[in-house]
């Protein structure tokens, strides 16, 4: 359900969402969250058919450093990969305002035929992070998604039947993802989550029509 955190702006984080350009069309959950939640904003990553890593990282860096409140990053596809790229170039001191990141089906550079795209970052992210993957994602097998989460020192959320989390995959406005976001924000409020990234739990979530049950493994 939508958060009411915006009622306390002095402490509430801003949720900055980085869309996957291939999914950014009517019915996209990121646009719906931005339209219905006062704590959410969408960062324009452009529509280039040949994504440029430096351009994407630069857009995110400018947005982060212009924010006047704590930031939770939510990236999907190329947006999630952009967050990882940016974080790999920053130290913890360079991004003190980032309190967490939710990374949904991050794009695997191995699947992109573009000279501007570099290898997948392998360093541990300097903030609590959670990778979400689906058991039927056509471009990111669930085992690969889990491996990426481990490389980044992130927790892992497994969904069933969500494909690539785009409008054509049947997730709709993705209320289960919104619930996951709010629970994750609550989790990283705890000091243990901030200091023990690798201890973040794996979550298993139901398919879009199967209810919002959340189970710790």
Question: How would you describe this protein?
Answer:
The chain has 217 residues and is an alpha/beta fold. It has a single domain (5-216), classed as Alpha/Beta hydrolase fold, catalytic domain (Rossmann fold), CATH 3.40.50. It has helices spanning 29-36, 53-66, 78-89, 142-151, 175-188, 191-195; strands at 14-18, 40-42, 71-76, 98-104, 129-134, 155-159, 202-205, 214-216. An eight-stranded mixed sheet has the order 2-1-3-4-5-6-7-8, with helices on both faces. Helix 2 crosses helix 3 (78-89). The longest helix has 14 residues, at 53-66.
Topology, number of strands? 8
Evaluate the radius of gyration.
16 Å
The CATH topology comes to Rossmann fold
Shape field: globular
Find the structural class using helix and strand composition.
alpha/beta
The CATH architecture assignment turns out to be 3-Layer(aba) Sandwich
Question: What characteristics describe this protein?
Answer:
alpha/beta; Rossmann fold; 29% helix; 18% strand; disordered N terminus; disordered C terminus
In short:
The protein is α/β, with parallel strands linked by helices and 217 residues long. It has helices at residues 29-36, 53-66, 78-89, 142-151, 175-188, 191-195, and strands spanning 14-18, 40-42, 71-76, 98-104, 129-134, 155-159, 202-205, 214-216.
Give me the secondary-structure topology.
Blueprint (H helix, E strand, L loop, with lengths): L13 E5 L10 H8 L3 E3 L10 H14 L4 E6 L1 H12 L8 E7 L24 E6 L7 H10 L3 E5 L15 H14 L2 H5 L6 E4 L8 E3 L1
Parallel strand pairs: 1-2, 1-3, 3-4, 4-5, 5-6, 6-7
Antiparallel strand pairs: 7-8
Helix pairs in contact: 2-3
């Amino acid at each position: 359900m939508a958060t009411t955190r915006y009622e306390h702006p002095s402490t509430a984080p801003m949720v900055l969402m980085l869309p996957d350009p291939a999914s950014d069309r009517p019915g996209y959950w990121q646009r719906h969250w931005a339209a219905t939640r006062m704590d959410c904003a969408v960062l324009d990553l452009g529509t280039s058919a040949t994504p440029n890593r430096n351009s994407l990282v630069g857009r995110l860096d400018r947005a982060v450093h212009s924010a006047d409140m704590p930031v939770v990053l939510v990236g999907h596809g190329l947006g999630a990969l952009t967050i990882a790229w940016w974080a790999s170039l920053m130290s913890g001191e360079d991004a003190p305002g980032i309190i967490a990141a939710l990374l949904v089906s991050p794009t695997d550079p191995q699947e992109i035929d573009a000279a501007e795209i570099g290898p997948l970052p392998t360093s541990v992210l300097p903030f609590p992070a959670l990778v979400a993957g689906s058991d039927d994602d056509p471009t990111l097998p669930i085992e690969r998604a889990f491996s990426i989460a481990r490389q980044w020192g992130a927790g892992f959320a497994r969904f069933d039947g969500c494909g690539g989390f785009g409008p054509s995959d049947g997730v709709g406005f993705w209320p289960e993802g919104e619930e996951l976001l709010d629970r994750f924000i609550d989790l990283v409020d705890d000091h243990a989550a901030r200091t023990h990234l690798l201890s973040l739990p794996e979550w298993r979530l139901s398919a879009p029509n199967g209810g919002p049950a959340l189970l710790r493994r």
